[in-house]
Amino acid sequence: MAKLKDLLPKVSKQETITIQGVEIPIAFTMKSMDYVQEAYGKSFAGFQSDFDKMLKKKTQTLDTAGLKLVNALIYAMVRSGGTETTPDELMNAIGFDDLKPIYEKAMNVFSASAFQPEDAEKLGAKK
Predict the structure, then answer these.
(1) Position 37 in a domain
(2) pTM listed for this prediction
(3) Cβ-Cβ contacts under 8 Å for 87 (sequence gap 6 or more)
(4) Burial call 7-38: b when 16+ CB within 10 Å, e when fewer
(5) Do the domain assignments include residue 16?
(6) How far apart are CA 68 and CA 66, in angstroms?
(7) In a domain, 122, yes or no
(8) Which domain holds residue 52?
(9) What's the pLDDT tens digit per position in 73-108?
(10) How many domains is the chain partitioned into structurally?
């Protein structure tokens, strides 16, 4: 029987973020949704709704609510990348100066991995 890792294209390099000078692998997978819920305290749909509202604001400031959203996303990606941590431990480990590049990298990975509405439409059309 074939192994899934042999059938799928090889990933050339796992994405990473740098926390305190250490490269930490990140990923956004189906399991990430559970980690988002754990860190955010709401369902993934609730997180996504609140996150979309934050992104639609003309000026984005990281207030307490924004930091909670960003931390939940980064936490989910770090856990999905294979690193054991807690939301609080991760939040305390990321220096304020490191937050912007970590957030930008997480958003790139999230955007590339997120299930888009047009994907659902394509699946619906292939009945």
Answers:
(1) yes
(2) 0.81
(3) 38, 39, 71, 72, 75
(4) eeeeeeeebebebeeeebebbbeeebbebbbe
(5) no
(6) 5
(7) no
(8) 26-112
(9) 999 999 999 999 999 999 999 998 899 999 999 999
(10) 1
